[in-house]
Amino acid sequence: MTHSLVIPESKTGHRETPLTADCRRLMQIYEGARPDSGGPLVDRSRRSIRRWIGAAAEAVLDDDDAARVSPHDARRTWATDCYWTLATAGFDAEIVVMNWGGWSSRETFRTNYLGRVPDAVAAEMQQTAGLE
User: Fold this and answer.
1) Which pLDDT does position 50 carry in this prediction?
2) Whether 89 contacts 126, CB under 8 Å
3) How many whole angstroms separate alpha carbon 45 and alpha carbon 30?
4) Do residues 41 and 31 touch, judged by C-beta distance below 8 A?
5) Structure pTM?
6) Do 8 and 102 form a contact (C-beta atoms < 8 A)?
7) Which residues is 5 bridged to in the sheet?
8) 3-state secondary structure the chain
9) Residue 12 pLDDT grade (very low, low, confident, very high; cuts 50, 70, 90)
């Protein structure tokens, strides 16, 4: 069974993005621990989300680097990880990830969201191709 994260209102409209089993389990734990169960899991303002991302960045980066991290970076990281995971599994990753992420322009996706091959993926590709 697949599970999706539903984003009812965004710049690009309604979209649904699949979740990993691990992410779904964490969301179920969070849902069970909430006293106000039944509503959206994240029902916060953009300002709150920016604060959360900033706090997470400050926990792992120095002040100068943390100040440059935004929610947009989380979206870019998600897109890059999804793309390379699907691409190495043999799927037409660009079309799928663009659909899940709500992008209609390949140029926008490629230029602003698709990052370099993650190190773990590159290492796996090298090993599979016998290039280690």
Assistant:
1) 86
2) no
3) 19
4) yes
5) 0.70
6) no
7) 17
8) CCCEEEECCCCCCCEEEECCHHHHHHHHHHHHHCCCCCCCCCCCCHHHHHHHHHHHHHHHCCHHHHCCCCHHHHHHHHHHHHHHHHHHCCCCHHHHHHHHHCCCCHHHHHHHCCCCCCHHHHHHHHHHCCCC
9) confident
70 backbone dihedrals φ, ψ, rounded to 5° = -135, 170
Name residue, tokens 């090298």: 126
State the pLDDT confidence band at 14, using cuts at 50, 70 and 90: confident
Confidence tier at 37 by pLDDT (50, 70, 90): low
Contact status, residue 82 vs residue 93, Cβ threshold 8 Å: yes
Q: Which residue has the higher pLDDT, 46 or 62?
A: 62
Rounded to whole angstroms, the Cα distance separating 14 from 2 reads 18
